[in-house]
Specification:
single chain; alpha+beta; Phage tail protein beta-alpha-beta fold; Immunoglobulin-like; 4 domains; six-stranded antiparallel β-sheet; 42% strand
Length: 409
């Protein structure tokens, strides 16, 4: 039997649906009718009922779970499966929504005046990172908004309080230092999970080319990809772009002799991971779990994920396993990776003035999600108290943003 994720997933879903039930969203007549219509003889009615229940989201979960407990549709395997799949999918969406703000570093503030030390403390609470204030902590400003990108809030603080906020890496945990001095003027695009700094280079004439270089770089470490860039002139028409095999899309050459104001449109994707804690208390019992489109199989310290990611998959899922001995009070975490090696042979475009990179190999760490953590058979199942699988499901969010750049000087 394939199980739905348990533990934290159920906990977060329970908290949300309990709140909704107190507000009177539980067991509405429409939801009960749609659950009944899942077994209707007309396929249109069945499809409509499934769509409406999905739209209800968390508010439909109490009624769906009550129907499952009561054995509704138990004599119809296909309809019962539809109900089970809806319960799992909606429960996952609730859980993912709970994880999203922390995963994408989104912060929320009530609309009011805050002292700088209050802001730093609130940011630490929401992001789990450290903010070190090295200026007058009594400086204050008005701040507000729900689920705002962290860097957007930090840029606002820099602008209003005349400080500079720098990110440092300290033992894997990020440290932000708030120091005196206003940073140089810059133009940025703030997206949930990523911030890009965008710069327009000076006019350039090289090899009969006239134009300027558009530079885009990450303001902070992030897992995001720009899929396409479009530069529109003052007449709204797209300007021709040249790419560099090494540097694009971070560097693009805009072919135009004009020094006009332009609008740049960025499209791409941001990745974040929703991590599921899959509990295995009967350590010798084979079990299967379903998370999104992935099926995770477990058989005493062996795991396998289907479908298995291919080498050309940009954002695969990841899996870690940990186990606890009956005589120990700590977990033994295990993870498996293999080295992915790719031969790289590129040359810079003629207009690009970046240093030339030599050909070579590009190495990156790649997850192994079919693993045996007891290959030497030294671990006795009788010695283990419990096993946990930590499965991170990749979630890809598209973005489409525009920014105006002033004319060249």
């Amino acid at each position: 039997m394939i199980q739905s994720p348990t533990s934290d997933v159920r906990h977060f879903a329970f908290v949300l649906v309990t709140s909704l039930s107190l507000l009177g969203f539980q067991d509405e007549p429409e939801i009960a009718r749609w659950i009944a219509d899942l077994a209707h003889e007309q396929i249109e009615r069945r499809d409509h009922a499934a769509r409406e229940l999905w739209k209800c989201g968390a508010s439909a979960l109490p009624a769906i779970r009550k129907a499952l407990e009561r054995g509704v549709h138990s004599d119809d395997a296909k309809t019962r499966k539809t109900l089970v799949d809806l319960e799992r999918a909606i429960g996952e969406s609730v859980f993912d929504a709970q994880q999203r703000p922390l995963a994408l570093q989104l912060v929320t503030f009530d609309d009011r005046n805050y002292r700088l030390d209050e802001i730093a403390a609130d940011l630490e609470r929401q992001t789990k990172w450290v903010f070190k204030v090295e200026v007058d902590a009594s400086l204050s400003m008005r701040l507000g908004g729900k689920d705002r990108p962290l860097r957007e809030v930090l840029d606002s603080i820099e602008e209003k309080l005349g400080v500079t906020i720098t990110r440092l890496e300290k033992n894997v945990r990020a440290l932000f230092e708030i120091k005196p001095g206003r940073p140089p003027d810059r133009r940025r695009i703030h997206i949930p999970g990523v911030t890009y700094s965008v710069r327009r280079g000076p006019p350039l004439a090289r090899d009969k080319l006239k134009g300027w270089v558009l530079e885009t770089e990450l303001a902070d470490p992030s897992d995001a990809r720009i899929g396409s860039i479009e530069v529109l002139g003052s007449d709204g028409k797209a300007l021709p772009l040249l790419t560099c095999p090494w540097c694009s899309p971070g560097r693009m050459f805009v072919k135009t002799a004009l020094k006009e104001k332009v609008r740049v449109r960025f499209r791409g994707n941001v990745l974040w991971r929703s991590t599921y804690d899959l509990r295995i208390d009967a350590v010798e019992k084979p079990q299967r779990f379903q998370v999104g489109r992935y099926e995770i199989s477990y058989e005493f310290l062996k795991t396998r994920v289907e479908p298995s990611p291919s080498d050309d998959e940009e954002w695969p899922p990841t899996l870690e396993l940990s186990y606890k001995y009956k005589k120990g009070d700590f977990w033994q975490p295990k993870s498996a990776t293999r080295m992915k090696v790719q031969w790289v042979s590129k040359t810079h475009a003629s207009w690009c003035d970046k240093p030339v990179d030599a050909d070579g190999t590009l190495k990156s760490s790649w997850p192994i999600i079919s693993s045996d953590w007891n290959e030497d058979r030294e671990i006795d199942p009788a010695d283990l108290e419990a096993v946990r699988i930590h499965f991170s499901k990749p979630v890809k969010e598209p973005f489409d943003r525009e920014i105006d750049l002033p004319p060249s000087e």
